[in-house]
Amino acid sequence: MTTQPSKKLETFPNPKSERDYTIRIELPEFTCLCPLTGQPDFAHIRLEYVPHDSCLELKALKLYIWSFRDEGGFHEALTNQILDDIIAACSPRFARVTANFNVRGGTYPTIVAEFSAPGWQAPPQVVLP
Fold this sequence. Notes:
The chain is an alpha+beta fold. The chain has a domain at 28-116: GTP Cyclohydrolase I, domain 2. It has helices at 58-66, 75-90; strands at residues 11-13, 23-33, 40-50, 54-56, 94-101, 110-116. The chain has a 4-stranded antiparallel β-sheet, with helices on one face. Strands 1-4 form a two-stranded antiparallel sheet. It is globular. 21% of the residues are buried.
């Protein structure tokens, strides 16, 4: 079992590809480096996606998130890179990456990046009493 960071996102076949359902994954230990100062940045990443033919394997996702630890990048670029890599790995019907970064310079930036597959429409929200 590997214990090294990796940029490889692995997948497995979606067990219910005929149904729209949402997978939500909390990744509270994201770290990267500020590209200007080299200081560490910390974020809580939330991934939400509606799988199509494949789903993300969680151990590979953990190692992928870990791979950013020694990389510098602006919050906006990193959030969009994560989304792009998820799209490339599993071609979801929909995906959203929300990155809530910890305080830096008195600010708490939150970056949200979304993707919808061409022609896909979200089902209407069901509100129960």
